[in-house]
Amino acid sequence: MADIQGSYDDLFTAVPGALAALLDAGDAGGSVAVFVDGEPVVDVWGGFVDAGRTVPWQRDTVVNVYSVTKTMTALCALVLADRGELDLDAPVARYWPEFAAAGKEAVLVRHLLSHTAGLPDWDGPVEEIYDWASATARLVAQAPQWEPGSAAGYHSLTQGFLVGEVVWRVSGRSVGEFFADEIAGPLGADFHIGLGPEHDHRVALTVPPPGRDEDYTASAPGRGTAPTAGTALSVRDGNSVAWRRAQIPAASGFGNARSVALVQSVMACGGTTNGVSLLSQAGVDRAWVEQFSGEDRVLGMPVRWGLGYGLFGSTYGWGGWGGSLVMIEPAARLVVAYVTNQMREPAEDTRGLEIVMSAYDGITGMGLRA
Predict the structure, then answer these.
(1) Taking the complete model, does pTM exceed 0.90, yes or no?
(2) Choosing a second label site near 44 at 20 to 30 A (CA), which of 36, 149, 250, 327?
(3) Is residue 370 in a domain?
(4) pLDDT, tens digit, 9 for 90 and up, residues 64-109
(5) Could you please report the per-residue DSSP string of 80-134?
(6) Is residue 305 part of a domain?
(7) 3-state secondary structure of 150
(8) Could you give the number of structural domains in the chain?
(9) Span 206-249, pLDDT tens digits
């Protein structure tokens, strides 16, 4: 059985067992955290940071969590909205005047957060996503593919630039700087949107699915097509130094399960965790209001979108390319986070769900869930 490091409450022994089973099944490495009331009841890790299985995963190992980053970027916008600095029902052009080009006058800020803006496709070269001005200029020139708010299509890469530019226009700081100053810093969370060279030594690079190499590209769950038209991102891109240094707020966040769970505990605990208050209860509740329910045009499956989070009954959250996931259940003041450097084919990947289900054994034992 794989060696699992860290600590966990006795009620949650199923969680390290689930992580060990994934490693025994061939995964390289990963970490899991379960937070209740803003405190860790599980904080475990295991495996290796490299495909050759030579360097053990450490407590401070960080990994690219891909689209789990979207929940961090959304939190930045929600904080600004709760402070009264950002009106989510306002046209994006109120804050970003150039954005009104090409028929986008009716796109509202909430459309950006709910994948309903009609701008799901990245059609520029990969190199352009590393340059903020070029990336946002390309989006300014795009026309919506549908009437904003009338349909949803997963904005896999574009959402981060769209929301991030609004954050920049309102706060005067890049989304990475705002997140570091206003969220990660006060909480003491080891999560980064734009990773400095001082952290390179502790990055676990993404390992492609078995039988694949670094040219493996992203695909939508249940489909063989890329979730962004025109430009397919590869594992090689995600493992590059340029990717780590850039702020790609939909996909280039680096952290571990502990940091993901700590940040999102703000959303699980009414806006305040560990004595740090970032949102009011109303500000948290705003995120859970359904913005769209139906088939997502890009993912090709039914979804419910809130503001920056997927809605799944009474739980909320999102996953990332490669398997990382965060799940929030406010009724139990619970967050479950799983991060991994080991990809599997999306249609076959149930690891996040397995980890979440293992955590519910402990939640039932604590009397937090019927």
Answers:
(1) yes
(2) 250
(3) no
(4) 999 999 999 999 999 999 999 999 999 999 999 999 999 999 999 9
(5) HHHTTS--TTSBGGGT-GGGGGGGTTT-BHHHHHTT-SS-----S-GGGGG-HHH
(6) yes
(7) coil
(8) 1
(9) 999 999 999 999 764 444 444 445 578 999 999 999 999 999 99
